[in-house]
Amino acid sequence: MLSALNAPGCRRHPWLLLLPKEEREGGGGSGGGVGQRQSQQRAGGGSSMPRAGCKSAGSWSKGTGGPEPGQISLVVFIGLLFTRFWFFSILYSIWWYLDQDKPRQGGRCSKALQSWVMWKHMRDYFPISLVKTAELDPSRNYLAGFHPQGIMAPGAFVNLCTESTGFSSLFPGIRPHLIMLPFWFRVPFFREYLMMGGLVTSDKESIAHILNRKGGGNLAAIIIGGAQEALNARPGAYTLLLRNRKGFIKLALLHGAALVPMFSFGENDLFDQVENSPGSWLRWIQDKLQKTTSFSFPLFHGRGIFQYSFGFIPYRQPITTVELFPRGEGRGAVFTARQNQRKEVSQGLPDSSLE
């Protein structure tokens, strides 16, 4: 099914038909449309090289260009200290200290924030859609493995952290939580915004807290490839990082959670990236920085506001996130199944036959 959905015709249609005609066919505008940009890439044998001054990014963010919300929050927090409203920063620092464990305890999701009209406009820009292929039992807890990382993972954010694609309608009784690097929860004000969107830290104790909640109905989603996989994100290709990424499977077995595979088609088509093939000097620097800081620094570019030649806004490419059938029933259920199987086999057989 994955190969069928990844076929060129399926990846381009019918979602590209939702874009304006001039953007589909390349008409109008000084930079050309989506169709013109894709034909130029095919003729050139790959994505074009960005101009000087391309942006480097961390492992994950929700911005679409310009200063990120985390940077703005930090500037506001520090700036308030030098105004007559300095006491707001002091009071928030006290609150921050008392509430520092909350991101590891499931956060504080806000349905009001997740239902903002702004997210529907973000959904329609690409557009982004969520495809359901199996039911999720609200009495169970789930651990979702999400691929690919892409540059900014808007598919993961829009589908799992907002209601713009109707997650709660497709999966009633399931509360999704997207896993994020702990660093972002140390940014004042911004951490509150993240938690209200259902994001939690990537610590083991944070994931364990979600998977061990009584009553079920919780889903923790991990972008498996993470920062390192972002260095391979480029249009028309899916290079996934799977080796040595089995820790989430152990967590699912340990806490009795079922695994839910999720794949987001089109996630890598939003930005062009500077050529950084393994073994190149640029990739060597990026790998060193990623190992040192836990962030990756892909050099990428997208489109501008009125043209397609250069900018930091993502290209308008359709993103289709597919949820697949849950795999496994967790360690407890596996052991129970083995015991039941053993009893069935043992009926009418001598005990020695099972040794």
Automatic annotation (TrEMBL):
Membrane-spanning ranges: 72-98
Domain of life: Eukaryota
Subcellular localization: Endoplasmic reticulum membrane
Principal subcellular localisation of the protein: endoplasmic reticulum
Keyword terms, alphabetized: Acyltransferase, Endoplasmic reticulum, Lipid biosynthesis, Lipid metabolism, Membrane, Transferase, Transmembrane, Transmembrane helix
Keyword Ribonucleoprotein assigned: no
Coiled coil: none
Annotated region (Disordered), positions in chain: 25-66
Species: Equus przewalskii
Name assigned to this protein: Acyltransferase
Sequence similarity: Belongs to the diacylglycerol acyltransferase family.
Pfam family, one: DAGAT
Bilayer topology: Multi-pass membrane protein
EC nos: 2.3.1.-
PANTHER family in the record: 2-ACYLGLYCEROL O-ACYLTRANSFERASE 2, DIACYLGLYCEROL O-ACYLTRANSFERASE
Matches recorded under InterPro entries: DAGAT
